[in-house]
Specification:
By secondary structure, the chain is α+β, with helices and mostly antiparallel strands. Helix content is 47%, strand content 17%. The protein has five helices and six strands; from the N terminus they run βαβββαββααα. It has helices at residues 16-26, 53-58, 73-81, 87-94, 98-120, and strands at 7-11, 34-38, 46-48, 51-52, 61-63, 69-71. The strands form two sheets. A four-stranded mixed beta sheet has the order 2-1-5-6, with helices on one face. Strands 3-4 form a two-stranded antiparallel sheet. A hairpin with a 2-residue loop joins β3 (46-48) and β4. α3 packs across α4. The longest helix is centred in the C-terminal third of the chain and has 23 residues, at 98-120. It is globular and about 30 Å long. The termini are far apart.
């Protein structure tokens, strides 16, 4: 059962790759019910009591409807579960060993992300 709080996606709006990906998700059915927080625009460096800008820009973070902060693969699964056309993928990876596999892929992507970002700029 979901709480009344909206799901919040924290993303790095200064990253061209991240902006494109988030822009894609924002066009999906269900995106209108999600709060999209560009952490690159936060002046004081503190996104939330349990998340600062440096953490938020280093990894993908999503706060679920119950207020729990999820990052990496768990964050993507939460996002997908809230988008109608992606719900099936969220469900698939939410079950073991899916979340473990997705997290390994995400950590691998984080290693090459800087080189991809340089090419996109």
């Amino acid at each position: 059962m979901k709480a009344n709080n909206p799901v919040t996606v924290y993303f790095d709006g200064s990253c061209p790759l991240c902006r494109r990906e988030i822009g894609f998700y924002q066009k999906c059915v269900g995106a209108e019910n999600i709060v999209w927080q560009d952490v690159s625009r936060i002046a004081d460096g503190q996104v939330a009591s349990d998340l600062n800008c440096q953490q938020a820009m280093a990894r993908f973070h999503v706060r679920d409807a119950q207020g729990d902060l999820k990052s990496g693969a768990a964050g993507f699964i939460e996002l997908w579960m809230n988008l109608r056309s992606w719900h099936w993928l969220g469900w698939l990876f939410a079950h073991p060993p899916g979340v473990w596999f997705l997290e390994k892929c995400y950590v691998g992507f984080l290693r090459i992300r800087p080189s991809i970002q340089r090419r996109i700029k």
